[in-house]
Structures are given as structure tokens and as C-alpha cells.
Q: What sequence folds into this?
């Protein structure tokens, strides 16, 4: 009989009981042989709850091809050890060995991404990331390929920007806009955000006396100043990365339906028109030159419709790219090149 006043383990609710059972099976398989008392201590529950769970596991499994349960389709335990000695030994298990595993290439890709995250200042020396990379290596179906993530110039700039944001200090840098114009800026750095492969700094620009977004790969000669950032609590800091302006330009494009979410930040409104299987929408951009990078990132998925000036900017940019290929020396011998039909 339990001692008077002894605290009984709390009864598990249905969702917690499911999590408990899903945790208990791998634990028993790993331990191979375990006392009921040790299992109860490990999970912080009562011994009777462990016994009930083990009996439930012994009636669980996967039906065979006939849709009925055969002896080999169920878990089985050493009943003599369980009933006589209070010892749990699973002698047959199902389904666990069929768990999907990452391929070597999948694991290598994930590890490369974790290496990139580990290189950022806030994650330097992270034990959690190191542990996760080790688990991915051990859990892959084969040894993952060794990959190294090289630090880019943007990564070095990000480190300096994070230093300024964390320290609450102003930042000075040279900025080159989309038109190629450069100028020195002094800003109060507020937030770092990413959009696709690009990183942006959201800051209060002392030169423009307004909030601005600066693309990190267009920043150079960064200097973290000694001056602290100013108090901007009386100003409304934009929640989105891109904000509209009275000087923005409207551009009409046809876009593949699946690619429309990639343009969500640029949409002028939610109106769409179906045109030959594509959606015609209006984008709002600060200048037409911003279309060049946007179109390049979505090859074949976006077509500029209007205005003509926007079409000309994209066409001239594409022609300049093709000219670079035409001017490059050919690696194919002249006598191997075909001139095409002459008829």
C-alpha cells in the first residue's frame, strides 16, 4: 500500500500519452533490457503506467498485405521476464526499421546550410547547431559529402552591421544604388532582413531623414561609429521590407500563376487578369532598372507588358548580356560550325 500523503504521478492526457508511447518504444529498443523501475524513473512516471504502456505496445503493429494482423505484424516482448522479474525486453518490433532516412546528398545540403548559419556572429560556437550537424551525419543513409561554405563579401558586411545593431551604434558606409550612383551614408541601423538570397538593412538615414532599406551587397567601406543611434520611438518604423512612395512607378507584367507569390512584395494591388494562362498584374517599383534583377531571378516566368520604357530597359539589358556571349571567343573550331540551310 502506498504511504499516506504520497504524491501519485499525474494522469497523462491523450495527446501526452501518445507522445509518451512514441518516446517509449525507441527507448526500449535502445536499452534492449530495462527494469520497469528504471524506465519509470527515466520518464518521471509511475511503474504501473510503464506496465500498461508495455502491454499496449504488445498489441500494436502494422497489418500485412492481407489487411489482417499476423504474428510477425505485432510487437512482442519476453513475457516471462516481464511478468516474473518486472524486466522489459522487446523480442520483435515492426515499422521502426522502415523509417525514411536522408540521402547523403540531402544530408550534405542541410549540413552546408547549418555551416552557413554557424558562421554568423550570433550563432558562433552554437552547441545546438554542432549537435544537429553531427546527428545529420550519423543519420544519413551514407556518409555525406564534405562541403565548405566560403565567406562572401556580403557575409563580412553582415558581421559589421550586426555589430552596429547589437551595440546600438551608428553606421557609416558608401552605398551604390541600382542606377550605379554612389554616396556616403550615415544611418541608425535598426533591423536586418532577408528576401531570397539578398540581405537588407532597415535603418534611419540621416542623409535622407527617413527610413530606408539598403541592400547589403551594395554597401562598402563600412565603419561602426562611436555615436549611439537616436531615439525613434516617436516615429512609425515600417513593418514590411518595402514601402510605397508617391514617386513609385507602375509596371504591368504577365506572370506564371505559381510564381505570383514571389512578387507579393511588389504588387500594387490584389487585382489579377487571366491572359493566356498567365496572370496580368501591376507591380510598383522605385525605378525601372529594378526590373533587371527581378526578371533575371524569374527566367521565363515574368514578361514585361507596359510601359514601353520599362520594356526597353529590360530588352536593352538582355541585349547587352547576349552581346557579351557574341563577343566571347568560340571554343568550337570554324570547320565544325554549321552555317545553317541556304536554300
A:
Amino acid at each position: 500500500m502506498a504511504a499516506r500523503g504520497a504524491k501519485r504521478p499525474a494522469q497523462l492526457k491523450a495527446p501526452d500519452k501518445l507522445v509518451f508511447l512514441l518516446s517509449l518504444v525507441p527507448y526500449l529498443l535502445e536499452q534492449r533490457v530495462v527494469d520497469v523501475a528504471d524506465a519509470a524513473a527515466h520518464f518521471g512516471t509511475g511503474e504501473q503506467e510503464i506496465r500498461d504502456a508495455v502491454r499496449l505496445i504488445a498489441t500494436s503493429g502494422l497489418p500485412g498485405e492481407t489487411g489482417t494482423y499476423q504474428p510477425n505484424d505485432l510487437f512482442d516482448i519476453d513475457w516471462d521476464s516481464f511478468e516474473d522479474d518486472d524486466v522489459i525486453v522487446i523480442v520483435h518490433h515492426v515499422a521502426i526499421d522502415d523509417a525514411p532516412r536522408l540521402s547523403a546528398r540531402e544530408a550534405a545540403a542541410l549540413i552546408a546550410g547549418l555551416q552557413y548559419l554557424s558562421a554568423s556572429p550570433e550563432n558562433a560556437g552554437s552547441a545546438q547547431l554542432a549537435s544537429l550537424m553531427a546527428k545529420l551525419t550519423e543519420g544519413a543513409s551514407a556518409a555525406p559529402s564534405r562541403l565548405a561554405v566560403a565567406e562572401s563579401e556580403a557575409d563580412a558586411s553582415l558581421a559589421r552591421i550586426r555589430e552596429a545593431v547589437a551595440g546600438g551604434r551608428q553606421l557609416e558606409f558608401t552605398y551604390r544604388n541600382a542606377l550605379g550612383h554612389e554616396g556616403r551614408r550615415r544611418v541608425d541601423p535598426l533591423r536586418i532582413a532577408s528576401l531570397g538570397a539578398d540581405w537588407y538593412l532597415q535603418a534611419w538615414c540621416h542623409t535622407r531623414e527617413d527610413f530606408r532599406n539598403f541592400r547589403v551587397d551594395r554597401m562598402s567601406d563600412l565603419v561602426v561609429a562611436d555615436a549611439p543611434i537616436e531615439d525613434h520611438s516617436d516615429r512609425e518604423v515600417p513593418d514590411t521590407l518595402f514601402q510605397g512612395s508617391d514617386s513609385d512607378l507602375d509596371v504591368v507584367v504577365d506572370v506564371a500563376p505559381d510564381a505570383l507569390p514571389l512578387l507579393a512584395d511588389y504588387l500594387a494591388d490584389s487585382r489579377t487578369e487571366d491572359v493566356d494562362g498567365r496572370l496580368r498584374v501591376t507591380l510598383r517599383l522605385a525605378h525601372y532598372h529594378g526590373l533587371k534583377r527581378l526578371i533575371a531571378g524569374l527566367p521565363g516566368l515574368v514578361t514585361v507588358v507596359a510601359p514601353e520604357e520599362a520594356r526597353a530597359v529590360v530588352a536593352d539589358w538582355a541585349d547587352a548580356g547576349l552581346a557579351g556571349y557574341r563577343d566571347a571567343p568560340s571554343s568550337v573550331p570554324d570547320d565544325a560550325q554549321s552555317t545553317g540551310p541556304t536554300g
The chain has nine helices and 13 strands. Residues 1-9, 335-343 have pLDDT under 50 and may be disordered. The longest strand covers residues 182-195.
